[in-house]
Amino acid sequence: MDPETQKRLEIVRRQYFQLVEPSQLRWSAGSVLKAPSVQSWIYDNLFNSDKISSLPPDRYQLRVLKFLTALVERAIDDPEEDEISDELMSKLSSLLSSNLPSESASAQQKAYVTYSYSLQSANQDDHHDRAVTLLESRSVISSAGTTGLRTWEAALVLGEFLSSKEGQDMVQGKNVLELGAGTGILSILCAKYLRVSHVVATDGDEAVVDAIKTNIFLNGLDKDDSSLPIISTAALRWGSPVNRPSFEEDYGMPVPDVLLGADVTYDKSVIPRLVSSLSWFFELNPFLQVIICATVRNEQTVETFQNACNRNRFLLEDVDFAPMPEELQTGPFYPTGTRIRIWRITRTQPSPDSYSF
C-alpha cells in the first residue's frame, strides 16, 4: 500500500472512531478502495471485533459499511476481477440481520468515542495517536437532563491548544484543576500525555463526576502506579467557598497552578457563580493561570463574562490560537462555523502606589 493511501486511511480511521458522520469520512477514490489489500486493512482496523475492544455502535458501523460498499460497487468495472471482500460482506450481513435500535434510541445510548491528538515535540514521533477514549452520550441533552455527558467543540479546541508547545509549557509539571469537566477529556489528556503533576476533574453534577471515573478507567489511569500522573475527580459547585486549610483534603491535590474550563460561559445566568469561583481560587493562589475556551454563541454572554472579570480585577487576554480548518483536520474533528475563543486569565496585582499606610 502506498504511503498516501495509508495516510488517507489513517485519517478515516480517526474520523470513524470519533463517530464522524459517514458522509463526511474522507475516503479515497473507489478505484483505490476496491483493492483487496485496502479492504483488508479497513476490515482489520475498523470492523474486526476480535482485535478492537472499543468499537462504535452497531448502527453507526452499519451506516459506514453501507456507504463504503456503495463507493466500491460504483468503482467495479469487471465483477470477475474486483469484488467487495468476504470479510466486509460478512460483517455487513451480520449487522443487517441484527435487531438494531432506532436512530433516536441509539442517540440516547452511550457509545465509545475516541479522539486523537498530535503533540508538538521534537522528541516524539507524532505519527502515533495520542488517543483519549470516552464513553459518552451522543445526544445534545441526555435523558438525565445534563449536557455534561458528551464532548463539545470548545473542549476539542482547548485540547488542541494544550497539545501545542505553548499549551504544554503552561501545564507541564503543574497542579491542574478543570472546572465543568463534562466527559473529562481535558483532564485525561493532561494526565495521559501532557506530563502534569496532578489533575482534578470537577463538575457540579454528581452523575457526571461518576461518568468521568469510568472514562479514567477506560484510559488506564486508575492503576496504583507511581509512574502515572495523579488524576482524581471531585464535585464542585460554582460559587461555593474554597477553603485553603482543607483544600488538599477535599480535592486530593495541592492548591492548583492552572485552572482549565471549556464551554463554561455558555449562559449568562451561570457567569456570576463561575467568576465567584475564580475569585476563590485566586485567593488560594494569586499567581494562578486560568485558561478558558468558549464557543461564541452569543456576544452578550461574552460581554457579560468580560465585564464580570473586569469588576474582579481579572486580566483577560485572548490566546492567539486558530482552530484548524475542517479540511485540514487530522484529529480531533470539529466544525468551525461558529467562532471559538481561548482566554488566559490572571489576577491584576495592585501597584505599590495603591497601598495605604
UniProtKB/TrEMBL annotation:
<dbReference type="InterPro" id="IPR029063">
    <property type="entry name" value="SAM-dependent_MTases_sf"/>
</dbReference>
<protein>
    <recommendedName>
        <fullName>Methyltransferase small domain protein</fullName>
    </recommendedName>
</protein>
<dbReference type="InterPro" id="IPR019410">
    <property type="entry name" value="Methyltransf_16"/>
</dbReference>
<dbReference type="GO" id="GO:0005737">
    <property type="term" value="C:cytoplasm"/>
</dbReference>
<dbReference type="GO" id="GO:0008757">
    <property type="term" value="F:S-adenosylmethionine-dependent methyltransferase activity"/>
</dbReference>
<dbReference type="Pfam" id="PF10294">
    <property type="entry name" value="Methyltransf_16"/>
</dbReference>
